[in-house]
Amino acid sequence: MLITFEGIDGAGKSTQIKELVHALTEQGIEVVTLREPGGTVVAEKIRLILLESSHEISSIGELLLFSASRAELVQEVIIPALASGKTVILDRFFDSTTAYQGYGRGIQMEVLQSIISVSTCGITPDVTFYLDLEPEEALKRKSSKTSILLEFDDEELDRMERSGLEFYRKVRQGYLDIMQRNPDRFVCINALDPVSVIHSKIKALLRERLPG
Ligand code: TYD
């Protein structure tokens, strides 16, 4: 089974992934946890190129780099893990590309779809937990990183995080649209709920869907 987590930066995906991995492992389920971009030697190098704040990258270049990282991860790690019956939990997958490069950067959906289908080898998550949060809230959470909101420089921000509040508003709208178009796969969670409440919701939803 492939479980993905999506949401804008700061929505709390990593915390929920950690809690879920712990819970599933306790149940004796073998879990592989991965994040995008990254997860193989080459994909981690691509991650460094993508997030280095001093790099200037065109929108298409950015799309292709995220997709190259994904192609490596899918072929080297995800497909073998799924084939051996493991549960794969992925911090971001192709919905991030649709939201960030499609809605955020404005790349045409037909272009995205063909590149996504090649880079994923056609793999689709069984379930996607989308942690919904307004960009303003996300920025408040990153207290030392509030400068996106204030629009001045902060050395702590990576290249994507420097894209500005308007960009993040488009990305969030993108996620809401993607979710509406994929109601069977997407589970929307209010990221403002307490961590323990979100964790319980995720576990309950998975109990319904996990085999056995
Ligand atoms: P990361 O530090 O992993 O962010 P987070 O903890 O929020 O997941 O950085 C990944 C960044 O790359 C994040 O800003 C989202 C962005 N991204 C895209 O723009 N397109 C993509 O296809 C993926 C996978 C990530």
Description:
This protein has 212 residues and is α/β, with parallel strands linked by helices. The chain has one domain (2-209): P-loop containing nucleotide triphosphate hydrolases (Rossmann fold, 3-Layer(aba) Sandwich). It has helices spanning 13-26, 41-51, 59-83, 94-104, 109-119, 135-141, 147-150, 165-181, 195-209, and strands spanning 2-6, 31-35, 87-91, 127-132, 186-190. The chain is globular, with a radius of gyration of 17 Å. Bound molecules: thymidine-5'-diphosphate. Thymidine-5'-diphosphate (TYD) binds at residues 9, 35-37, 51, 66, 91-92, 96-97, 100-101, 160.
Describe, in short, the structure shown:
The chain contains 9 helices and 5 strands. With 212 residues, the chain is of the alpha/beta class. A 5-stranded parallel β-sheet has the order 2-3-1-4-5, sandwiched between helices.
